[in-house]
Amino acid sequence: MSYSQTALDQLEHGQLDAFEKSYQQALANDSDDLLYSLAEELYSLGFSNYAKTIYTRLTKKYPDDDTIKINLAELAIDADDDDLALNYLSQVSRQSDEYVRSLMVSADLYQTQGLFDVSEQKLLEAQRIAPDEPVILFALAEFYFNTRNYRKAINLYLNLIKAGTLEMSAVNLVERLGVSYAEIGKFEQAIGYLEQIKPVHMNSDVKFELAFTYFNLKDYSKAVKAFIDLRDSDPQYSSLYPYLADAYVELKQTDNALKTIQEGISIDQFNEKIWQKAGQIATMAGEDELALTYFKKGHEIAPEDMEILSLLSDWYVTHTQFENNLKLLEPLSTDHVFDAHLAYNLARSYQETDDFKKAAHQYELAGRELRDNPDFLKHAALFYRENGRIKEERAYLKQYLELVPNDLEMASMYDEDEDY
Predict the structure, then answer these.
(1) Are residues 190 and 213 in contact, defined by beta-carbon separation less than 8 angstroms?
(2) What is any Pfam family matched here (predicted)?
């Protein structure tokens, strides 16, 4: 038995002192081929420094061996020494048999640096040299998948699957294809692939994609079942709870929806969107005070979130808490942050608290964007009528009646002022 093999056996049995001695004996006595194999094994086992010592010795002896240079480049990348890695890779010429491999390693390096365009160009160059090489097609597909360019990834995964490659580097290509289709909204195609994956091979992300795809196909019963399966296997996967709750809503199971979103809150208390969804579902369930609590908590976590702010403001207006709405929105108005819907809510609040000048200003702001909103047009018309501004009243009434011609009361009001 060679010293190299003895060293590996000792390492396998945890005999580190004996390994160190055999390793030194291998360096002194074993052939270069044995040392190269030893370096490969040590690298795969995570003993990079020992592998580096061997490769460094071998590259001095074989300065034209590009395989060793690339191995040293990979070791340098692992050690976060990108400059050294690039130095080794730059020594591999286009004429080398190892040039394609050097391109692949370079692509990985540039991707870790965030230089995605350069990484893509390296992979495309490798593909031009070896267009049918599965490893290159897979690397390019994974690049596009990880950079969310799913359409390009789909074509590459399809080519690999058609050629009979269903798995590579422990990655299930059928799963990747299904997820990619789901990400671009092609749910019919996605489900055909996702349903092929055996449950034992499904991780949490894929389970979510399967459930999410059922949801988007409006197959809410299957969506509920799939989301529950994910919840049971990984209850900390907080993204599932709003969708599971929505699926229950679609199935008219509001109580289950509220219970589910409350479970989500217990898992992720700092996700404002879960609080927002909880407020919306509590409203559906007729739990108005609970909805207010949830909206306020979401706003507290994310005060800049305009959607939650709007829902909280709507709650105050709907429940005639106009003073609270002014306290909520007036700081926003002071900072000149404009939103047509919030301006409308401000207008109603000022109107109900008898500040007609400010109400008129907010109605004017809201009217820039809400001319197709019947509710706004009706309230604006009534506001201007109340303040004796018949011209503005008739303008808003006219637009309102174009949208709601069957409102006889408002039509009669419009006719009353026809001689103005």
Answers:
(1) yes
(2) TPR_16
Q: Domain limits at 163? A: 132-197
Domain CATH code at residue 136? 1.25.40
Q: Are residues 291 and 237 in the same domain?
A: yes
Which helix (H) or strand (E) segment holds residue 113: the answer is none
C-beta of residue 345 within 8 angstroms of C-beta of residue 326: no
Q: How far is CA 65 from CA 41, 58, 59, in A?
A: 19, 9, 7
> Among 271, 302, 333, which residue terminates a domain?
302
Residues 6+ apart with CB under 8 A from 129: 99, 100, 103
Q: Burial-class residue 419 by CB neighbours within 10 Å (0-12, 13-18, 19+).
A: exposed
Whether the predicted model's global pTM rises above the 0.90 cut: no
Task: State the amino acid at position 288 in one-letter form.
Answer: D
Total structural domains within the chain: 2
Q: Is residue 329 in a domain?
A: no
d(CA 253, CA 231) in angstroms, rounded, equals: 18
**Residue 343 within a domain:** no
Please give the helix or strand (H or E) that residue 328 lies within, else none.
helix 322-334
Average pLDDT of adjacent 10-residue blocks, the chain of 420 residues: 89 90 92 94 92 94 94 93 94 94 95 94 96 94 96 96 91 93 94 90 92 96 97 96 97 97 95 96 96 97 95 97 96 75 96 95 93 95 91 91 92 74
240 and 193 both lie in a single domain: no
Asked if 247 and 215 touch (Cβ cutoff 8 Å), the reply is yes
Token pair belonging to 288: 């108005």
User: Rounded CA gap, 158 and 141, in Å?
Assistant: 10
Asked if the structure places residue 296 within a domain, the reply is yes
Cα–Cα distance, 305 to 307 (Å, whole number) = 6
Q: What is the 3-state secondary structure (H, E, C) of 53-95?
A: HHHHHHHHHCCCCHHHHHHHHHHHHHCCCHHHHHHHHHCCCCC
Specify whether the CB–CB gap between 214 and 191 falls below 8 A: yes
Instruction: Give the three-class secondary structure for 171.
Output: strand
Helix, strand or coil for residue 172? strand
